[in-house]
Design a protein that fits this description.
- It is a single chain.
- The protein is of the alpha/beta class.
- The protein folds into two domains: 194 residues, D-Maltodextrin-Binding Protein, domain 2, CATH 3.40.190.150; 98 residues, Periplasmic binding protein-like II (D-Maltodextrin-Binding Protein, domain 2).
- 41% of the residues lie in helices and 18% in strands.
- Helix 2 packs across helix 9.
- The radius of gyration is 20 Å and the shape is globular.
Length: 333
């Protein structure tokens, strides 16, 4: 299994370890049906058809139903920044037949962005597996005269208030990843949210904004067409899918890492044997060459790992991003 998710400081590992005991309280003494699964399994997606989580869930679901012997039905329930679907699964019966493939926002960021979230992802849901991730790519127009991320940051610091950037919405990784960059470097740029990646990229192409750090699948076609210049990827290591693009650390900006990730989660009362079986089966699916190839075509990297890997990862994400979100002043309600 790939270890694509970003490493964090040792102090965050310690914080995660301290929180682990409390997070484990979601497990219950409920026993799994020995015949599980004996009916269709529902996987809810917090976003619309064609979104990265939707593509990922359908790809994995096709193979899961072959391995489990039951249909895997993908249901799209977009709304409220992913909270509608994620909250619905948090309230669903823990019978082993309802799961969600959710993302950074509903599973971590929204706990800080929303004053009152109708669910707690750390207690109302059980981690199953970290499924996949996608790097953000920071890009400028090819004719901008900016040749590196360090050059962009230096220009922002020298001319505060001049630069702006597009994102796919307040609280998205495309927004908060730049807020992390600003926090680490002392640079300043104005955030302009757009409803989607294509809209954010169109704004950049038209010159309405100076740069964007959005998912690779939205950026790379324009890079290949010579209209945009890719400055850096947001992950800790270079992506094998974009080997010529440096990491932010290689670009001279250490400690700036982020990943657009997707995870399978279950209602908190889902029996441990069911969660463990799903973890094993999804990990096996993520190792299939044809699955990896199709994910790579979407600029997604399979990740996988244990249940506890995902739990610790979510806790680290919260520790890193909570102060960044509060510093930015971003709120949604």
């Amino acid at each position: 299994m790939s270890a694509s998710f970003p490493p964090r400081r040792a102090v965050l590992e310690a914080a995660a370890a301290l929180a682990l005991a409390g997070a484990c309280a979601v497990a219950t003494a409920q026993s799994a049906d020995p015949a599980w699964p004996n009916r269709p399994i529902r996987v809810v997606i917090p976003y619309g058809a064609g979104s990265s989580p939707d593509v990922f869930a359908r790809l994995v679901g096709e193979r899961l139903q072959q391995r489990l012997g039951q249909p895997v039905v993908v249901e799209n329930r977009p709304g409220a920044g992913g909270n509608v679907a994620t909250g619905a699964v948090a309230r669903a019966p823990g019978d082993g037949y309802t799961f969600v493939v959710s993302t950074n926002g509903p599973l971590v960021y929204n706990t800080i962005l929303y004053r009152k979230l109708p669910y707690d992802p750390f207690t109302d849901l059980r981690p199953v597996v970290l499924g996949g991730g996608q790097a953000n790519v920071c890009a400028v127009r090819a004719d901008s005269g900016i040749g590196s991320l360090k050059q962009l940051v230096d220009a922002m610091k020298a001319q505060p208030g001049k630069f702006n950037f597009s994102s796919v919405g307040t609280g998205s990784l495309a927004h908060l990843g730049v807020e992390l960059l600003k926090a680490r470097t002392g640079a300043y740029a104005v955030h302009i949210p757009y409803p989607s990646s294509p809209a954010a990229i169109l704004a950049l192409l038209q010159g309405d904004v100076h740069f964007a750090c959005v998912p690779a699948i939205a950026v790379m076609p324009q890079v290949k067409a010579g209209k945009l210049r890719a400055l850096a990827v947001s992950t800790a290591q270079r992506s094998a899918l974009m080997p010529d693009i440096p990491t932010m650390k290689e670009a001279g900006l250490p400690d700036v890492e982020n990943l657009a990730w997707m995870a399978f989660m279950a209602p908190a009362s889902t029996p441990t044997p069911v969660v463990e079986r799903m973890n094993r089966e999804i990990n096996a699916v993520l190792q299939m060459p044809e699955v990896r190839q199709r994910m790579h075509a979407q600029f997604m990297e399979p990740i996988g790992g244990t249940i506890d890997d995902l739990r610790r990862f979510m806790l680290r994400e919260r520790e890193v991003m909570a102060p960044v979100i509060r510093r930015s002043g971003a709120t949604i309600d």
